[in-house]
Design goal:
Elements lengths: L7 E5 L3 H12 L3 E5 L15 E2 L10 H17 L5 E2 L3 E3 L10 E3 H7 L9 E5 L3 E3 L1 H14 L3 E3 L6 E5 L2 E7 L2 E4 L2 E4 L5 H7 L6 E12 L8 E3 L4 E4 L5 E6 L9 H15 L7 E13 L5 E4 L6 E5 L3 H18 L12 H8 L1
Helix pairs in contact: 1-4, 1-7, 2-7
């Protein structure tokens, strides 16, 4: 649909966060250009376990964002037919699930997951949670943005910024300058290199995790299982997906070795697993702000630049895409994003 000419917005990054921003901005009538250094969903989005997990044990400054995240995905499902989510629920047990309000007994656990060899006495079950194919979801969001007039430039690294009077008015690429009213940085761990070009330092670490995919017999896992032994889920097509912590660079902790150990753990935990054939084991680098809270909002030091860096990016992509687009197009601040503002780091360093 044609919303008429609007604010020119460049979104740097075509992972799931950038794609959500592009979709919501274009739907609100912005003139959107997505600029991606590689391909759509080529970064950490392609190496994501993609658990839509709204629970958080510690005191949580972004509780309102997490609380709205799942509802926002239900809204997107209705808008984008290509976006398919497994609302399977998530079954968690071990130390992290103790004291949970969603506690269920062993009989219910066995009903949910009949292939568990040794179901625990109790577990936490979040029936409202689920998982998605992060790559397919990103493509669906990009297609939705394009249907609303967005342009998408892949294999187009940002080489620099065009600035005037301490404000950015465009990005430099090998093909030339693209002008904009607002530049949104949604390039994950690549954001720090971009803000360094603007002489603004944001504390975003690259936090590694290992994402493993096996071919396996169907109907092994019905929910998403998170336990001390394994974190697994199964796709509708039958692939078994697992997530593991990245330990170190030692040979015995390389992704293929971790995948072999994880496969053995899964065989020990589940009935019916004769063999698991490894399809891929990849390290993904998640953008992790130093204090663990997303960085979302305008940079105070330079005009025209809006930052979106967060973990968990998949869970929060839909709600942040909507709220940030409302801020950018409507020029009105969202109270739910107030704990996420970039200037909190500079207030600390100035004090």
């Amino acid at each position: 649909m044609d919303n008429g000419p609007g604010k020119r917005v460049i979104v740097v990054g075509a992972g799931i966060v950038g794609a959500s921003l592009a979709y919501h901005l274009a739907a609100k009538g912005a003139n959107v250009t997505v600029v991606e250094a590689e391909g759509i969903a080529s970064g950490v989005t392609g190496s994501s376990f993609a658990w839509l997990n709204a629970t958080h044990g510690d005191p949580d400054p972004i509780a309102s964002l997490r609380g709205a995240a799942l509802q926002e995905y239900h809204r997107l499902e209705a808008q984008l037919p290509g976006l398919k989510i497994q609302w399977s629920g998530a079954l968690s047990y071990g130390a992290s699930s103790e004291g949970s309000a969603n506690r269920i007994p062993q009989s219910k656990i066995s009903e949910l997951e009949p292939n568990l060899r040794n179901p625990p006495q109790f577990a936490s079950y979040a029936a409202e949670e689920g998982a998605l194919d992060a790559v397919a979801t990103t493509h669906a969001l990009i297609a939705g943005a394009q249907a609303n007039g967005a342009k998408v430039l892949t294999q187009t690294p940002v080489l620099g910024f065009k600035t005037q009077d301490s404000s950015v008015f465009g990005v430099e690429t090998a093909a030339g300058v693209i002008e904009a009213d607002i530049v949104v940085l949604a390039a994950g761990t690549g954001i720090t290199k971009l803000t360094d070009l603007l002489e603004v330092s944001l504390p975003i670490d690259a936090s590694p995790a290992i994402f493993i995919r096996y071919s396996s017999p169907p109907n092994l896992v019905r929910t998403l299982i998170s336990s001390p032994e394994m974190e697994v889920r199964q796709t509708p097509e039958g692939a078994l997906l697992a997530a593991e912590d990245y330990l170190d660079d030692d040979l015995e902790n390389q992704p293929a070795a971790i995948a072999l150990r994880t496969a053995n753990a899964i065989k020990n935990e589940l009935h019916g697993v004769v063999s698991l054939d490894l399809q891929s084991a990849r390290v993904g680098f998640r953008p992790m702000p130093a204090d663990g809270i997303p960085i979302i909002g305008y940079l105070a030091q330079v005009g025209g630049v809006y930052v979106c860096a967060m973990h968990p990016g998949v869970t929060l992509a839909a709600i942040v895409g909507r709220l940030a687009s409302e801020e950018i197009v409507g020029d009105s601040a969202s109270p739910a994003l107030n704990p996420c503002r970039p200037d909190r780091f500079f207030k600390l360093s100035d004090g």
